[in-house]
Amino acid sequence: MQSLNTTSLKIVNNQLWILDQQALPQETRWCLCPDVATLVDHIQALRVRGAPLIGLSASLLLALLAEQGMAREPLTLALHTLRAARPTAVNLMNNLDRMQQALDMTDYRRAMADEALRLVEEDRALCERIAVQGAELVKPGSRLLTHCNTGGLATAGIGTAIGVLLRAHQQGKVAQVWVDETRPLLQGGRLTAWELGELGIPRRLICDSMAASLMAQGQVDAVWVGADRIAANGDVANKIGTYSLAVLAHYHHIPFYVAAPHTTHDPHCPNGAAIPIEQRAAAEVTGAAGSFGHCQWAPDDVPVYNPAFDVTPAALISGWVLDCGVITPQQAKDGIFQRPLSA
Ligand SMILES: CSC[C@@H](O)[C@@H](O)C(=O)COP(=O)(O)O
């Protein structure tokens, strides 16, 4: 397969490498993904993460395995194993549906390579279109708040919500980005704080619990987040903590925007309650892991609740900023998300 280079995925000599998003920003470490078990482990450990990137990494690995001579039956098994790696982000399932169609073709080896690379190129283009649409909504001098990480690390392109922040910044409209640290896995504190720095976007890190008082002080002009799945009624699953930001934004009359590619939309999922929410290990909440090793502060025997995502009801969303346009609350109420969307 031809070489490929994105911020966090690369193909060199027909091998897939992922940038370890658990090691950043202290260390830039690339990990090899020679087989399905290794990639599933990287995905579950969030070394590869972000809705679009998970789907792209799985598609690229399948294409490489096909090229290396893997037969249809083991490829089908591999596809099903990858599909189950993480349950919430529907981009994984949507990408794998397309890889399944390629696998069904006579020349499936060629078809899978072409499809995986097409998915990467499409994701790059989708990010660009989201950014163009979103930047128009940003007013000059804005202080924007974002949650989790939605940038080049999480996609093949410039990102979703962070892509919007980048284009708006290039247009001179961003005074500052408030970066939620995003407990428990700190995608904001580790990844977004780093990525915005690399992009030269003025940013200031806060603990998640500080957003409310900032809003009360009038220091947040809009909230921009990504999405892992958009249901048929417009409800959105995204990183845990997103819903509380939406409630806070609503109370303080602050616009709350969701930026995502149409590949994050799932018309078969009727509403947020039907979105499968991944539950994760207690150790992520009882302590923290990082370049310093693992540090635990909670008692060993404390019971823990650790959902990786929450659901923001459509009623709290000011606009769904997609590659195919900005969906308004009225359009969502009228059922636009009940039908498939296209680029
Ligand atoms: C462009 S990434 C959009 C979402 O995937 C992002 O906001 C998010 O929730 C990521 O969760 P993660 O658990 O880090 O994969």
Automatic annotation (TrEMBL):
Substrate binds at residues 49-51, 86, 187, 238-239. Keywords: Amino-acid biosynthesis, Isomerase, Methionine biosynthesis. It is an enzyme of class 5 (isomerase). The active site is at 228 (proton donor). One of its GO terms (molecular function) is S-methyl-5-thioribose-1-phosphate isomerase activity. Gene3D superfamilies: translation initiation factor eif-2b, domain 1, Translation initiation factor eif-2b, domain 2. It comes from the Bacteria. HAMAP family: Salvage_MtnA. NCBIfam families: eIF-2B_rel, PRK05720.1, salvage_mtnA. This is Methylthioribose-1-phosphate isomerase. It comes from Affinibrenneria salicis. The lineage of its organism: Bacteria, Pseudomonadati, Pseudomonadota, Gammaproteobacteria, Enterobacterales.
